[in-house]
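User: Can you predict the 3D structure of 2,4-dienoyl-CoA reductase [(3E)-enoyl-CoA-producing]? Sequence below.
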Amino acid sequence: MESPFKADVLKGKVALVTGGGSGIGFEICTQFGKHGASIAIMGRRRSVLDSAVDALTAIGIPAVGFEGDVRRQEDCKRVVESTFQHYSKIDILVNKAAGNFLASAEDLSPNGFKTVLDIDSVGTFTMCHEALNGGAILSISATLHLTASWYQIHVSAAKAAVDATTRNLALEWGTDYDIRVNGIAPGPIGDTVGMSKLAPDEITSKARDYMPLYKLGEKWDIAMAALYLTSDAADGGLWLSRPRH
Ligand code: HXC
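Assistant: Sure. Here are the predicted structure tokens for 2,4-dienoyl-CoA reductase [(3E)-enoyl-CoA-producing]:
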């Protein structure tokens, strides 16, 4: 598909993407790179990082992978520092790292609940905190917490916290540091680990009948939204603003 954006919309920018080795995160890396950005990926698995970096460099995108777990503050700090060392700056932080599995509330251990909050919510805040340096932040959540979702109480709680963190940072850091903080809440997106783990095929094909366009969203859709929100095309929002007290 041809991009609706000019190829230099992120020219000269450096983007650090957590969970950028696969799925939506990798598509964001690819599209950011195709639009001029240099990419740093943070992820837990070396092999996933290596193949993502190889795929990006093969199409001429500057890319580097740093191993790390967003649950560990020291990893977040080290990866942010390594990205600075490698590219001399970070313009864009994308928080995409997330953990997920289906479990009914009564079968889910409190530690299972905590594990997903640690990855999604605390991990997002920690990365924002370590990377605070101007530029733009984009955090990817979901739509399941906007209503309720079967067997995803932990994920719903985690994504609700991600959205709350996005709104509060947009207010505080937009005002104080001129940092644009945005979120994207994707619905079901085809061809992702999230979909294959959480929604068996028969559910997906039935659900399609109720979808406005009779089809699943695509990773491309999210990457294009990400491109818009992190580019200079997107500028400050008013609806969150309120007096400081
Ligand atoms: C029940 C589980 C479980 C499962 C782990 N736990 N997997 N409970 N069912 N399938 C519990 C464990 O019992 C344990 O609690 C606690 O969680 C920690 O488990 P660990 O195995 O030690 O955790 P870890 O190895 O760190 O694994 C993290 C993980 C894992 C989140 C559990 O599944 C993971 O990292 N998955 C890959 C990431 C992923 O799926 N990404 C896709 C995101 S998609 P106890 O009490 O036993 O100690 C996405 C889209 C959302 O975000 C929206 C979709 C519509």
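The first strand starts at residue 14 and ends at 18. The mean pLDDT is 92.
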